[in-house]
TrEMBL record:
It comes from Zasmidium cellare (Wine cellar mold). Residues 40-359 form the DOP1 N-terminal domain. Residues 390-594 form the DOP1-like middle TPR domain. Belongs to the DOP1 family. InterPro entries: ARM-type_fold, DOP1, DOP1_C, DOP1_N, TPR_DOP1, TPR_DOP1_M. Residues 365-380, 1011-1026 have a biased composition (Polar residues). It comes from the Eukaryota. It is a peripheral membrane protein. Transmembrane segments: none annotated. Residues 987-1139 form the DOP1-like TPR domain. It is found in: Golgi apparatus membrane. This is Dopey N-terminal domain-containing protein. It holds the Pfam family TPR_DOP1.
Length: 1822
């Protein structure tokens, strides 16, 4: 009975020959066969014989001879078949064993024996049987040619030729792609001896599916099934493309247009029947075949497909131009142009041939590469070339779209973004292509790159710009500037904001090279002409105008001076008068120039450089006038800068409007009636006038006449900006004033204006000023004009004034101009009721340049006294005038001295006056006294008023504190002589005054000379009005005053607070400071009571003033402030005065009784400032003293906070986001003063209270919101001279001890604990400070740190909270020690290592047992705290610290043994509790796993960590870890563990025992034993999967043979075995892990097993299946996921078997009318299908939107139709209906769409999906 007849009887299935019906479904056929041989005894015996032969198969034979013996037994059993046997029993098992014998690792003899069995089966049972069982036997044969030897191939070819080829097309159709892939390896070498035979077989398949030209089937629709399968093979299998290419070269029909065929429009082209077959049913796969070939990594394959494109698929082919859509054509063109990135000429030539078509005979030599400009120069006015027409018609639009699409695609890496620019550069090698393409893509390319530069990292942008610059340099200059100007023109024409366009314009010219000769001489001048003409557009906003001017300035910087020379006007150019044309005509002229250049290819006339310069000069002058009228300061300043740049480029005469600028300003000033002009305009006007050349004729200067006309107005405007209420531009206004003085002729014009203003006369539109305001403005002008030459003393701080003009000539000129206004200002000292009196008095008392004032006055005194002494024969009136002038000069000196302070007298004493005959100079004090004595009662004059003036001055000098210096003048003798003369003469009225002077002078004889120490103390800081805060105060000197001081009025301190906090007192702060200095010594008892409110008042005002100063440095300036920097200086001075007095009183109150023996005791830094503070005489006064000290400390801390805030700003004043650069000099001046003053105050406070001061800094550092602010605060400690590491480290350690172990240090060193600072924050700061210090500071750090660490080790319990911080400190010390050569390196390393070992042990000993084991104890790990503080705390945790230490453990511990000991300690004390905790694995963090990885690398041979990891790996709870932690942390740990402990993998495999069925069928514990075996096997399989995923690819190749054995054994498990069939889900997971972790070449032995078991799992879904019970829901789900993974990954060898499971050809979409599925997934879905089942239950992620763009993702993902927890509980039928059937029904379509879209597989998603399944312990049996 034939098999076909049996099938008709049992199934009623139509015969295979009925049309094109597919073979009978395999499940139905297998059911019929099983029924037949079970019913027939002969067949039953035959089946038993084969079954016995199959049973002799060993799981994995050891020798190849065993394979041959098995094959011989099998063949012998098969040969016993009964006569006319219709089928072969157990064919599926036979096919599986034969496929396993065709393992590539076996010798060719085994392969030959296997093929012998195949041949016998095929020849015995015939083609009818083969067609029905092709799905069983073909998978083993399809891959043989890829590894078969020459001796094996003939037998294989015989099989194909005699049996497979002869099958009908309907039977071959499902497996055609597999057959093609199997034959392609034999076609890779065209010279191989079996090439022709393999080619013939493949040619036979072609003729089977493609009818010949003489066939009668030509009348039917062409069938392109063979070609579509071949194209799919090329797309999906890169390793077989060479063979496919060789076949395509010989057999692919030419798709060129027929000769004479015209464009048929939308009509389908007339192709040959052979060509129709290639593109039937659609040409998409043809295009994708070429795309993949052109994208191949091998250059030979790319070259071959390019040749194929040129010869068979030219660009003008009707297939590409009509049948293929624009998207597919663009895809092909994109793939083609990507070959340009290889920079290979052989590829490029072929690409040019495809783009340009065949070369004409007349243009045979036109293939020379050139730039796009050759399109014009080569072609001339003739017709375009044939190749140019060809490309413009067929390829230009598509290529343009491809380039633009590449530009718009988001790029993840820079090289990806640079690709289109590199491609464009290569395309420009052919002018036919570049000439048409570049004009279309240049501007979009620049726009895209500009956008990319705004959102990407600078390094990435630089890399892309390098490629874009090469492209930019290759583009024609005229095209570049035409695009830029046209874009700007279009924007302005549409009335849109031009800001973005201008930013793009500026970015291009600043980024790329625009300095070649053509651009400099032609295009940049044209662009400047166009831009300057755009300023006349009335609709432009002010900001846009400023940007245009800025762009003009940038362009002007590029242009060399020679371009603007007159001789550069070429013949035919327009005359210089062209600049007189309207703006519209200028813009039209520029646009017309580029229009003619680009469209006609002719040399158009361009504006010459001198014409452009004239145009710029005229238009800028007009715009300056308009900006001045509108008071647009920003635009005016930009225009002025542009004028200055233009004048530097043009010589005299080349730009005729230099004088017009001044005339314009004069007219504009005269036309203005009211208002104040912005300072930027004034500054720009003076700068413009300064740049004009001076032209003198007949001895007179006429160039400055217009400016001289407006000089008084400009001077009054500058005078307005010198007001103390407008401090924003003080420095700049002073500079502008002296520039104006240098410009005006005659030179006394500015002096006259200044004298008028100094007299209080109104200037400009400003009302009459008060004398006080006038004096204040002059003092500001003086301070910023006259530099100080006084040598600074004291602490070495910088002076409080910054010199503006340092040149000697300018200094002399400044003194000359300011001399008369100075004298007028000093007149205010004559009248104490004058409002200006206090202003001038306070100014002089703190004036650093007071020496210059004395020099001016002494010059007058010396000149006049010399003239008087000469007794010349001048008229009496002249002599009288001299005496009056001398009296006036002396009165000025008298006023200064009488109203001065210690600084005034000190300056006078140090002043040196140089006279003729005295080259060394004379001190000012001595010279003044000597001059007064010489003129007193002399015969040179008779003026009594002058004598009284001289007596008054001498009385001031002799009664002053510096009178002792006058002792050397022997004044007493001289004055006695004068007294006698006076008595004898007629000046008796002067006797009383002279007697007083003589009395004072005689007392000088009794004065002892001061010691050097006293002198140096007296001549301290010139800016100080009182002694500085210092620990060397002498409290005994003021003890009596403290006890006798009366109580102050209760309103006193309130009045002080009101005075220093009121804004109305800011001009009188000096008087308030003097008042404060006078009353502070009087009321010491009340000072402590009122200290905190008073200091708080000062601090509040300092913060307020600081905000005002900070606001002045920004563009958004608020209300004007009154000289805030001077107010800040005064407030800081007062604060320092209060703190000084308070600390002095505290020391006096706490001072012990003097003991002579302790007077010479030497103290160190940490003890000297607090010695005796806590040594009270008795209990009653202890509380009072403690309260006083606490009060002082709180005041000091408040002061530090305020000063620190100001210092932080002054250190980086330009960091503000809206910093105003126009007053940068003023801001720098103010910041310098504040920085120096606050640093001085902080140094003084730190020197007396280092511990309390440091705690404030630590608190600020800890609470800073960002790292920048914290680092700036930390830098304060590095710039203060009193805060060296040797001072900071002990203070920090004291602060730490005060909070952890106060009894460890003396009471005097304990902190007051007034700062809320935790021990952890203090230790964290210490670590950060040590890290910030220089390595060379190790000599200052080492002693204190090491001694402290030893003390900690003596009693570590109090420090248990900060012990991890100490480990970090040890690491820092080790790093610094490693970077220097300090001390005895070896001994110090050994000591540090010992401390580390002991401290590590102490850390683990003192920590609570649940500190690291319980995750709830550390909120930081759970993310409860946010911000910088939380990050610092987390970084200083034990595990993060150990992680950092472990990275550099070798620099702490010098030997491997000590490192191993430390690692073992960490393992036993830390890792073991963590891994054995009840919270495992939830208590595992990424830091823990990183620490473990570093431990494995530092001590790879240590056994403890291996044991702990082995225990953790074997713990089932490990498989409950989060997937992210497993992939990012555990994988690295497990890889290192398996790498260093190689016995673990074989041990794990040994645990996988084969299923056993004996002894467990019955009994009470049978079920429990089976469940335990299942659970144990499942966990071991999952552990094996985790190891595979954790290691790099092919790590476990040596164990693959054992894994194969285990898989084969365990797949034989049944529902009743132990382990049971429940483990098959894990086996399918293991197959997924193998597919992801093993390369395709090593997967060959597994495919027979995978195919067999995967097919068995899927067929169990059928209702008629006999193995329904072997696969539960989880096993079926994992089998489907395995299939989904294989389809997504599509390994090369799996593609040979893919047709078994899915329809992998075009039939998945274009199915024949009588199509019946053969693929297992389609068969099952169709069998299980019903009208009620919804096939859309799963969403197919076939589009890029389903995941990452261009990534192919699995179909069976997380979005299942049922909950994961319900999978096991669901009935199998419902589970299959809800999940499996929708998946199988869509799989073929999903796979085909993924291939068709050329998506790459997303391997990361596949790994994540498998990992989630492995870590789902809910699927493990309980």
């Amino acid at each position: 009975m034939s098999l076909e007849a049996a099938l008709r009887e049992h199934g009623g299935i139509s015969p295979t020959g009925s049309g094109r019906s597919s073979p009978v479904p395999r499940a139905a056929r297998r059911t019929v066969e099983d029924g037949l041989y079970k019913a027939d005894k002969t067949l039953k015996r035959y089946a038993a014989t084969i079954e016995r032969a199959l049973a002799s198969w060993e799981i994995s034979p050891e020798e190849w001879a065993d394979y041959i013996a098995f094959l011989a037994r099998l063949l012998k059993a098969i040969q016993t078949h009964p006569k006319d046997a219709p089928f072969l029993p157990h064919s599926r098992s036979i096919a599986t064993r034969l496929a396993q014998c065709l393992n590539p690792a076996l010798p060719s003899g085994v392969h030959q024996k296997s093929l012998e069995v195949y041949t016998y089966i095929f020849s015995t049972f015939g083609n009818e049987y083969i067609s029905g069982h092709l799905h069983e036997f073909l998978p083993g044969l399809s891959a043989v040619l890829s590894f078969a030897s020459l001796s094996v191939r003939p037998a294989l070819y015989d099989l194909f030729e005699n049996h497979i080829v002869t099958l009908s097309p309907a039977q071959l159709r499902p497996a055609l792609k597999s057959l093609i892939l199997g034959l392609l390896p034999a076609l890779e070498e065209e010279t191989a001896e079996d090439f022709e035979r393999a080619f013939k077989i493949l040619r036979t398949f072609e003729t089977t599916f493609v009818p010949d030209a003489d066939s009668i089937d030509l009348t039917l629709d062409p069938d392109g099934y063979f070609w579509q399968c071949l194209f799919l093979a090329v797309i999906t299998n890169p390793s077989r493309r060479q063979g496919a290419l060789n076949f395509l070269v010989q057999r692919l029909p030419a798709l060129s247009p027929k000769s004479g065929q015209a464009d048929s429009g939308n009509k389908r082209p007339d192709l040959s029947k052979a060509a129709e077959c290639v593109v039937s049913p659609e040409p998409g796969l043809l295009v994708r075949c070429f795309v993949c070939g052109l994208s191949d990594s091998q250059i030979l394959i790319q070259r071959g497909f390019l040749d194929l494109l040129v010869s068979h698929l030219p660009l003008n082919s009707p297939v590409l131009q009509q049948l293929v859509g624009p998207g597919d054509l663009d895809r092909l063109v994109s793939a083609a142009i990507l070959v340009l990135l290889r920079r290979d000429m052989s590829l490029n030539r072929r690409l040019w041939s495809w783009f340009l078509g065949p070369e004409s005979k007349d243009h045979g030599n036109s293939s020379q590469p050139s730039s796009p400009i050759l399109q014009r120069t080569s072609s001339g006015d003739g017709e375009p070339s044939v190749q140019l027409r060809y490309f413009s018609k067929f390829g230009q639009n598509s290529l343009q779209r491809c380039i633009l699409k590449m530009l718009q695609e988001p790029a993840q890496v820079p090289w990806q973004k640079a690709r289109p620019y590199r491609i464009c550069l290569s395309l420009m090698d052919r002018w036919e292509i570049g000439g048409l393409l570049v004009p279309k893509v240049f501007l979009p390319a620049m726009k895209d790159l500009y956008t990319y530069s705004t959102i990407s990292e600078p390094s990435d942008v630089a890399e892309v710009v390098r490629s874009a610059s090469l492209f930019f340099d290759g583009v024609e200059a005229s095209l570049i500037w035409e695009c830029l100007i046209s874009t700007l023109h279009e924007t302005l024409q549409r009335g849109q904001p031009a800001t973005n366009t201008l930013e793009l314009f500026n970015w291009i010219i600043n980024t790329f090279n625009v300095k070649d000769e053509e651009m400099l001489t032609t295009h940049i001048p044209q662009a400047m002409a166009y831009l300057i003409s755009c300023l006349d557009i009335s609709a432009l906003e002010s900001g846009t105008r400023s940007k245009i001017v800025g762009t003009l300035l940038t362009l002007l910087d590029f242009v060399p001076v020679r371009i603007f020379k007159t001789e550069h006007i070429e013949n035919g150019s327009q005359p210089v008068a062209q600049w007189q044309a309207p703006a519209e005509s200028v813009r039209a002229s520029v646009l017309n120039f580029y229009r003619q250049t680009s469209h006609h290819g002719k040399s158009a006339t361009a504006l010459a450089g001198i014409q452009v310069a004239a145009l710029l000069a005229t238009r800028i002058t007009l715009q300056l006038s308009l900006a001045l009228q509108d008071l647009d300061a920003e635009l005016f300043a930009h225009l002025a800068t542009l004028v200055l740049a233009l004048r530097s480029k043009t010589a005299d005469g080349d730009c005729s409007d230099n004088a017009d600028t001044s005339t314009t300003f004069g007219a504009a000033f005269k036309s203005r009636q009211t208002g104040i002009i912005p300072f930027q305009i004034l500054q720009s006007i003076i700068a413009l006038e300064s740049s004009l050349p001076s032209r003198k004729t007949e001895g007179r200067d006429h160039s400055r006449r217009p400016l001289a006309d407006i000089e008084s107005e400009v001077t009054s405007q500058l005078w307005y900006y010198l007001s103390p209420e407008r401090p924003k531009y003080h420095v700049e206004a002073a500079k502008a004033f002296w520039q104006l003085d240098g410009l005006i002729s005659p030179n006394d014009a500015v002096t006259s204006s200044l004298i008028s203003l100094s007299r209080g006369m109104p200037g400009g539109q400003e009302p009459v000023l008060t004398s006080a305001e006038t004096a204040r403005r002059f003092t500001i002008l003086w301070d910023h004009s006259i530099s100080t030459s006084v040598a600074k003393a004291g602490a070495g701080r910088r002076g409080s004034s910054i010199s503006v003009l340092q040149e000697s000539k300018q200094m002399a000129r400044s003194q000359e101009v300011l001399e008369e206004p100075l004298l007028l200002t000093l007149d205010a000292l004559n009248d104490p009721t004058d409002p200006a009196f206090e202003v001038v008095k306070s100014w002089l008392q703190g004036l650093s340049s007071l020496e210059q004032v004395f020099q001016i006055l002494f010059k007058h005194v010396l000149v006049l006294s010399s003239a008087i002494k000469k007794r010349s024969a001048d008229p009496a009136r002249t002599c009288k005038e001299r005496v009056l002038k001398l009296d006036y000069a002396l009165s000025q000196l008298q006023n200064i001295i009488s109203h001065g302070n210690s600084w005034t007298r000190r300056t006078l004493s140090r002043l040196l006056i140089f006279q003729d005959g005295r080259p060394d100079g004379t001190e000012g004090l001595l010279l003044l006294a000597d001059t007064c004595v010489a003129l007193l009662c002399s015969d040179f004059h008779t003026s009594k008023a002058l004598n009284r003036r001289l007596i008054a001055i001498l009385e001031l000098l002799l009664s002053g504190p510096d009178a002792a210096e006058l002792k050397k003048l022997d004044l007493d003798s001289t004055l006695l002589d004068h007294l006698m003369v006076c008595i004898a003469g007629d000046m008796e009225s002067l006797q009383g005054g002279i007697l007083r002077l003589a009395q004072l002078a005689l007392k000088l004889r009794l004065v002892q000379p001061q010691t050097e120490q006293a002198d140096s103390r007296q001549r301290g800081s010139i800016s100080s009005k009182r002694p500085s805060i210092a620990p060397s105060m002498r409290p005994n000197s003021s003890a009596s005053s403290l006890t006798l001081a009366p109580a102050p009025p209760h309103q006193l301190f309130r009045c002080l607070r009101m005075g220093f906090s009121s804004n109305r007192t800011r001009f009188h702060l000096d008087q308030w400071l003097a008042f404060l200095a006078d009353i502070l010594p009087m009321f010491a008892d009340a000072l402590f009571t009122n200290l905190l409110p008073l200091v708080e008042c000062f601090c509040e005002q300092l913060i307020k003033v600081h905000q005002e100063i900070e606001q002045l440095s920004r563009k958004s300036t608020g209300a004007d402030a009154v000289i805030p920097e001077s107010v800040a200086m005064s407030l800081l001075e007062g604060l320092e005065m209060v703190l000084d007095r308070a600390y002095e009183c505290l020391l006096s109150e706490s001072a012990p009784e003097p003991t002579p023996k302790d007077s010479d005791t030497k103290t160190n830094f940490l003890t000297n400032v607090t010695t005796g503070v806590f040594k009270a005489e008795g209990p009653p006064s202890r509380t009072s003293k403690s309260n006083s000290r606490l009060t002082v400390i709180l005041a000091l801390q408040d002061s530090i906070r305020a000063a620190l805030k100001m210092w932080l700003w002054a250190s980086n004043p330009t960091d503000a986001f809206d910093f105003d650069s126009t007053n940068a000099s003023t801001t720098a001046y103010v910041a310098l003063r504040i920085r120096n003053k606050t640093r001085h105050l902080l140094e003084q406070i730190f020197s007396v209270e280092p511990l309390e001061s440091l705690e404030v800094v630590v608190s600020h550092w800890s609470t800073s919101h960002n790292d920048g602010e914290a680092s700036t605060a930390l830098s304060l400690l590095h710039v203060m001279s009193v805060s060296r590491p040797k001072n900071v480290v002990p203070a920090t350690l004291d602060a730490l001890c005060s909070r952890t172990n106060p009894s460890a240090i003396p009471p005097a060193r304990n902190s007051s604990l007034t700062i809320d600072l935790s021990p952890s924050a203090t230790a964290t700061f210490l670590s950060a400070y040590l890290d910030s210090t220089e390595d060379d500071a190790i000599d200052e750090l080492w002693p204190d740190c090491v001694a402290f660490l030893r003390d900690v080790l003596a009693n570590p319990l109090p420090y248990r909270q900060v012990l991890p911080h100490f480990l970090s400190i040890i690491l820092l010390l080790a790093e610094k020690l490693n970077n220097t050569n300090f001390g005895e390196q070896r001994k110090m390393r050994r000591d540090l290592g010992d401390i580390f070992q002991r401290l590590l042990t102490a850390t683990f000993t003192t920590l609570p047992s649940g500190y690291v084991a319980d995750p709830g104890t550390d909120g930081l790990r759970n993310g409860e705290l946010k911000g910088r503080h939380a990050r610092l705390e987390q970084d200083m945790g034990l595990i993060p610290v150990l992680k950092r230490v472990m990275f550099k453990l070798d620099i702490i511990l010098e030997t491997q043994e000590r490192m191993a000991y430390a690692i073992n300690n960490i393992t036993q004390s830390l890792l073991s509790p963590i891994f054995k905790s009840k919270a495992f694995p939830q208590n595992i963090t990424q830091d823990v796993l990183t620490l473990v990885v570093q431990m494995t690398r530092k001590a790879p041979g240590a056994k403890p960590w291996k044991k702990e990891l082995a225990d953790a790996f074997n713990d089932p709870k490990l498989l409950a870890s989060p997937p992210s932690l497993m992939s990012e942390g555990w994988f690295a740990v497990l890889h290192q563990w398996s790498l260093h402990d190689k016995e673990r993998t074989p041990e794990l495999l040994a645990r996988l025992t084969p299923p056993a069925s004996a002894g467990i069928m019955f009994g009470v514990g049978a079920s429990a034993a089976r469940l335990e075996a299942d659970r144990r096997t499942q966990l071991n399989l999952r552990r094996l999967c985790v190891l595979l995923l954790a290691s790099p690819e092919d790590t476990y190749v040596a164990h693959l043979r054992t894994i194969e054995e285990k898989i084969s054994e365990l797949f034989e498990a049944s529902p009743s075995s132990s382990p049971s069939a429940a483990i098959k889900a894990e086996l399918f997971m293991l197959c997924r892990a193998l597919a992801l972790s093993v390369s395709s070449v090593h997967m060959s032995p597994f495919w027979p097993i995978i195919n067999d078991k995967l097919e068995a799992a899927l067929t169990s879904l059928l209702p008629s299946s006999s193995n329904n019970n072997e696969f539960n829901n989880l096993s079926i789900l994992q089998a489907c996921k395995l299939l989904d993974l294989l389809v997504s990954l599509s390994p090369d060898e799996f593609q040979l078997h893919e047709w078994l499971y899915i329809t992998d050809t075009i039939d998945a979409v274009y199915q024949p009318s009588d199509f019946s599925p053969v693929a297992l997934s389609d068969q099952i879905s169709e069998t299980l299908g019903s009208a009620t089942i919804d096939d859309n239950m799963l969403v197919t992620p076939t589009t890029p939107g389903g995941g990452a763009k261009g990534k192919r993702r699995p179909l069976l993902g997380e979005d299942l139709a049922v909950d994961k927890g319900d999978i096991q509980a669901l009935p199998k039928e419902e589970f299959v209906r809800a999940v499996i059937r929708p998946f199988l029904s869509q799989l073929s379509m999903h796979s085909y769409e993924g291939v068709y879209s050329l998506e790459q597989t997303d391997g990361k998603v596949l790994r994540e999906g498998l990992l989630e399944d492995l870590l789902d312990l809910g699927s493990v049996v309980e």
